[in-house]
Amino acid sequence: MIPTIKKNKQLFFHIIIWIAVVFTIANQLFLEKGEFPVKFLLRIWINIVLFYVNYLFLVPRLLLKKKTLQYTLCAVLIIITPVFLNKVILTPIHQFDRIAGEDELFLFKKLEIGISILFNVISLIIGTSLRIYEEWKKNEKKNQEIESKRVTSELLYLKSQLNPHFLFNSLNSIYSLTTKKSDIAPEAVITLSELMRYMLYQTDSEFVLLHQELDYIQNYIKLQRLRIANNEDVNIQIHGSILNQKIKPLLLISFIENAFKYGTDFKGNTEVKIEIYVHQGELQFSCINLIGNRKKDYQNSGIGLQNTKERLQLLYPDKHWLMVKEENNRFIVELTLKLT
């Protein structure tokens, strides 16, 4: 249905353009000569036919398929054919033979042929340029659709990896509370349910409100603090005016998960410091954690962190700055993000 409407619009546009061109020139000739320009109308119809032979057949079937030599030969025919038809068909209609003097008649015919060839060349260039532009736009749109589908599929894949990773970490945290028969285990379960509700019902949107994402992060940290015995050095600070800014969902959580996973030393002390500053359409995120002596899981380590880097590249190209480093036995993540 949509392609048919598009073709109808294109046909209507072509008809309007040709009517405007024919009417304007014919009207001008009528005002100058005082007679209806029959010869001009016959010539213009010949040129219209040849224009569409080039536009509809020669360009897409020869030029765009790299058959340059064949197209060049056909283009030459397009240019000289109207001149030949003008001589064979239109000469009997021509009334210029009344002019006295063969020299004047010869010069006039030479001038007429030159103008006809020039008109044909211009018509050929316009038709070729128009068709190439339309094909370029069509290919550009197709490439954008392919890229959009690629990005969407990659994001769905990355997100499908992220959610189980988060869930497994959270369940491990609650499991550690239940094994200790902690009184705060029920509160941890409720907090987890709030987190999962957010992930299930909010993060399917392209954007979420920044304050919702920050509430989610604070709930996650609350869950982790319930699990950790020595949590005095676990804190989050949020500065700035948070109004109606929006952000892509689940961008920051992997950095924070990673900090809690590796931020405990051999004495059981955990150090995780998170600072978020929002100012003039920018979010500045900093996460610093102690590098503990926990044995690294080489099979699963860094899945969330790598996913976040890839998502940033896909979702915020040229709109973010990320720095990840180790310094003074601390793992540091700094991210600057342009918000919507």
UniProtKB/TrEMBL annotation:
<feature type="domain" description="Signal transduction histidine kinase internal region">
    <location>
        <begin position="154"/>
        <end position="230"/>
    </location>
</feature>
<keyword id="KW-0418">Kinase</keyword>
<keyword id="KW-0808">Transferase</keyword>
<keyword id="KW-0472">Membrane</keyword>
<feature type="transmembrane region" description="Helical">
    <location>
        <begin position="113"/>
        <end position="133"/>
    </location>
</feature>
<protein>
    <submittedName>
        <fullName>Sensor histidine kinase</fullName>
        <ecNumber>2.7.13.3</ecNumber>
    </submittedName>
</protein>
<feature type="transmembrane region" description="Helical">
    <location>
        <begin position="42"/>
        <end position="64"/>
    </location>
</feature>
<feature type="transmembrane region" description="Helical">
    <location>
        <begin position="12"/>
        <end position="30"/>
    </location>
</feature>
<feature type="transmembrane region" description="Helical">
    <location>
        <begin position="71"/>
        <end position="93"/>
    </location>
</feature>
<dbReference type="GO" id="GO:0004673">
    <property type="term" value="F:protein histidine kinase activity"/>
</dbReference>
<dbReference type="InterPro" id="IPR036890">
    <property type="entry name" value="HATPase_C_sf"/>
</dbReference>
<dbReference type="Pfam" id="PF06580">
    <property type="entry name" value="His_kinase"/>
</dbReference>
<dbReference type="InterPro" id="IPR050640">
    <property type="entry name" value="Bact_2-comp_sensor_kinase"/>
</dbReference>
<keyword id="KW-1133">Transmembrane helix</keyword>
<dbReference type="InterPro" id="IPR010559">
    <property type="entry name" value="Sig_transdc_His_kin_internal"/>
</dbReference>
<keyword id="KW-0812">Transmembrane</keyword>
